[in-house]
Request: fold
Amino acid sequence: MISVIIPAFNEAENIKFLFERCVAVLQSLQRPYEIILVDDGSTDDTFKTAVALSERFSHVTVLRHNKNHGKSLALMQGFDIAQGEICITLDADLQDEPEMIPLFLDKIEEGYDLVNGWRVDRQDTYPKKMVSRWFNYLTQRFFDCPLHDINCGFKAIRRSLYKKLYLRGDLHRLVPILAFNMGHPISEVPIRHQARLYGKSKYALLRHRGLLDLIALASVQATKTRPFHVFCEVAAVFAAVAFVLFTIWVITGSFLSSVRYWRLIPIVLHLSMIWFVFVATLLPIFGLVLEIIISNQLQTRNWRNELCNQRVSSPPQPDELPKPDPL
Ligand code: UDP
Ligand code: MG
Reply:
């Protein structure tokens, strides 16, 4: 079964066309399917329109958030109730074309757990494309992830992965990274992209939360298995900077203090040095606390099992096979 999950926030004008196109594509696949629309607390007619569509088309479920809780939680609601072996996540704004769904399914059949869309000719404003380009660049550098368009909302995900995802905050932008970090095979397909015809984008141009999520995830990733080591290494960098500031202060301090307009510089150097020493002292303590928590609670047998995705044992040797009954 294919489950199509559509998060929608104030998309009343779009969803009628979206459903018609989705149903046409899904019917042509001749596989069981369901469409789950999660109305994320819309204040327009999205819910009313979706309910009318659920009466017109079969295999449709509509969920409604009591208020706007964000795209990540809307997707989580869909993942919770989806029954498909494969789920497709699709924005409601028709910027991505439902007709591309078969491309995703073909790629999944090649053995991937997640297939991400890649909007090669993205139809958004230039500043938005630039912000996205930077986000993709940073993500590729931080995580060694080979995908080109991490934040594309159009994806196909196997059940073994989507049932395991835990999206909070704005983590929907980093789903491929979560999958990649968990060791799932991921890939991408180039797709067409359209400009928004109705409604407007729900995200400000400066998606600073995406960047904050990126930093948070990179920190979680870096400190997951050996926090004490990582925190001590970072502390060493802070200590080195403190040492450099100290050296500059010793060499130039008395000269700078004697020049009227530069008198402040040694004070700033001194204060910065104290701050770097302070952070360098605190970091190993945090690392140690995390290490204690992790070793006592987190790195359990279940957690280790999650790290292996295959197990092969040698077949029994002929002399180990049970002896045939002489009678
Ligand atoms: N969306 C949502 N909740 C939100 C914000 C957005 O469900 O709080 C949905 C929105 O209706 C759309 C998808 O997430 O279906 C992507 O949003 P949008 O098109 O505004 O993002 P953009 O394409 O500008 O990145
Ligand atoms: Mg959009």
